[in-house]
Write a structure and sequence with these properties.
The chain is mainly alpha-helical. It is 81% helix and 0% strand. Helix 1 (10-62) packs antiparallel against helix 2. The longest helix has 53 residues, at 10-62.
Length: 183
């Protein structure tokens, strides 16, 4: 077999093939991890939202006159919203780590790109600019969900506080004279 000037020798070709396969598999793995992490943030957010809706409607429909049930349901809803914000934060963190790892894998490809192209291997991750745009979208989605939950949680906690103070009002020390003063 004749080896041309731009084509590596057989030993180098085997080594480059292994590098290419490793880069391709690692990029696929990191893409799958990003997809799983975003999917989990969506599924957990949807599940928590469904649970919150169920609790609120159940308390309203089955215990319309029991303020303690409404208080407990609202407190649980506020805690679930905080939990959802945490899940989205962890999803964002996981996506960020996977993107960093993918960049390191791409660097391994770029280091050998000329030799790999001479052997006929295509780039294993598509257009670099398009890939970066996809990375931005992957980073932004968990942040958007996290912001949504970070807005819901204080609103729901405020409703819980209002119900709590309605049920257990803070009473100022008032003398009997001031209670019965003329209007």
């Amino acid at each position: 077999m004749t080896v041309g000037p731009s084509i590596p020798n057989p030993e180098d070709a085997t080594r480059l093939h292994r590098i290419y396969e490793s880069v391709s598999k690692n990029i696929e793995r990191e893409n799958a991890l990003i997809s799983y992490r975003i999917s989990w943030s969506i599924f957990l957010s949807a599940g928590i939202l469904a649970a919150e809706t169920f609790m609120a409607s159940y308390a309203k429909d089955h215990y319309p006159d029991d303020p303690m049930v409404h208080l407990l349901a609202q407190g649980t809803i506020a805690l679930l919203s905080c939990l959802a914000a945490y899940f989205c934060f962890m999803s964002r963190r996981g996506v960020k780590v996977a993107i960093i790892q993918m960049e390191e894998v791409k660097d391994a490809y770029v280091e050998h790109e000329t030799s790999l192209k001479a052997l006929g291997y295509p780039r294993p991750y598509g257009d670099p600019h398009g890939h970066r745009a996809g990375d931005y979208n992957a980073k932004i989605f968990p942040i958007a969900l996290m912001i949504l939950w970070c807005v819901f949680a204080p609103l729901q906690a405020g409703r819980f506080a209002a119900l709590l103070f309605e049920r257990f009002p803070l009473r100022a020390a008032v003398s009997k004279e001031s209670q019965y003063t003329k209007a």
